[in-house]
Sequence to fold (210 residues):
Amino acid sequence: MHSHTMWSGDSTTTPDELVESVVASGLDVLCITDHNAIKGAVDLASSLPCRVIVGEELKTHAGEIIGLFLSERVPIGAQPIEAAQMIRDQGGLVYIPHPFDPMRRNLAEPSMRALVDHGLIDAIEVLNAKTSLPSLNARAARFATEFGLAAGAGSDAHVPLAVGAAYVEMPDFDGPADFLAKLRLGRTIGHHWDQARPWSARVVPSTSIH
Fold:
């Protein structure tokens, strides 16, 4: 539910590498959630050996929010409530990544609670493979239970080998609303994985963000 490609800016995972990683991991569905961009996800939707959910991990003034099932990019820098509403307005789902992790651009807890008060969170990441302390993922799980939010998991992969380090096993779905319903029946699986890419001489193709 949370992965990055070379369109993110801080990841160098190329399309060819992503194809290899998806095959190796056995994933059926990949949410591509590049930072402040959807072009990579849109371009890769027809070439990966799995279904692709177009997403974006967007920076708000209070931390990061993920939109899933997007058709348009949400602009950087919006207020959290404004950003969540823009995701919802295009039929997308609002997913909160790596909450409570102070080493990340996590959404500030007051802003997260404000989104809950406005009914603008669909799911929260209770298992992020890059979060090193299990207690932080556990805290996210308690938050999800407290407010009746669906629980998600993702590798937050910025390198090919990380793809599939955390994921959700869930029934098949048809569209955003059914995805959310089936997510509530799912099981989060994974482990901590935050290793650096092994060095090799390589050229990463240029990207443009639309």
Q: What stands out?
A: Helices lie at 15-25, 39-44, 80-89, 109-117, 134-147, 176-183. The beta strands are 29-35, 51-60, 63-68, 93-96, 123-128, 150-154, 166-169, 187-190.
